[in-house]
Amino acid sequence: DAKTTQPPSMDCAEGRAANLPCNHSTISGNEYVYWYRQIHSQGPQYIIHGLKNNETNEMASLIITEDRKSSTLILPHATLRDTAVYYCIVRVANTNAGKSTFGDGTTLTVKP
Amino acid sequence: DAGVTQSPTHLIKTRGQQVTLRCSPKSGHDTVSWYQQALGQGPQFIFQYYEEEERQRGNFPDRFSGHQFPNYSSELNVNALLLGDSALYLCASSPGGQTQYFGPGTRLLVL
């Protein structure tokens, strides 16, 4: 599985957009980019995923570069409840062998 | 629709003992994966079950074993517990290899 690199920590002001970067330069053509977040030792919460195109859902937007070597998760209007550890992972989907390899993630702190 | 559920929520064991953790997947999900998360680290993949068979395994010793039942629920067994086995154990379910959804985890403390 391809590895990902994320900054260890980031701050964001409440109400502003939070942009979380992720590098995955060794991603394979059949690997998706997934984002999860984990709030204080709860189970990781699925946020969004994509293969090539940018994706948006009710929680966030995912921007994937054209060469697919990096991506950015955007929380458009961060709230205090968005304070969490955010994990970017790449994994094969559409098979029965899609394990997820987590790094240490980015600790996002949203400040009032 | 209930999400992934795990039991128990917390557990305390002593070194050398054995433990069994349980997981019920989301409705419609047939694949279950188990992860170990030590304090301050990301989850580490233990193994994945599909059609009642172990399909993939991470870098964990044979003391870690599992089972999947016909209703897709799963158990994680750890024998001969070590202090280093203290961690949050997470179960994730998915429909095949699609998006994994995680349960709340079981916090295991080995004394």
Brief descriptors of the model:
heterodimer, A: 112 residues, mainly beta, 5-stranded mixed beta sheet, B: 111 residues, 7-stranded mixed beta sheet, 51% strand
Overall description:
The complex is a heterodimer of chains A (112) and B (111). With 112 residues, chain A is mostly beta strands. Chain A has strands at residues 9-13, 18-23, 31-38, 45-50, 55-56, 61-64, 70-75, 84-92, 106-111. The termini of chain A are far apart. The relative contact order of chain A is 0.34. The mean pLDDT of chain A is 92. In chain B, strand 4 (31-37) and strand 5 form a beta hairpin. The model of chain B has no long low-confidence stretch (mean pLDDT 95). With 111 residues, chain B is an all-beta fold. Chain B has strands at residues 5-7, 10-13, 19-24, 31-37, 44-50, 53-57, 64-68, 74-78, 87-94, 101-102, 106-110. Chain B is built from no helices and eleven strands. In chain B, the strands form two sheets. In chain B, strands 2, 4, 5, 6, 9, 10 and 11 form a seven-stranded mixed β-sheet that branches. In chain B, strands 1-3-8-7 form a four-stranded antiparallel β-sheet, with no helix packed on it. The chains are: A mainly beta (112), B mainly beta (111). At the A-B interface, strand 4 of A face strand 4, strand 5, strand 9 and strand 10 of B.
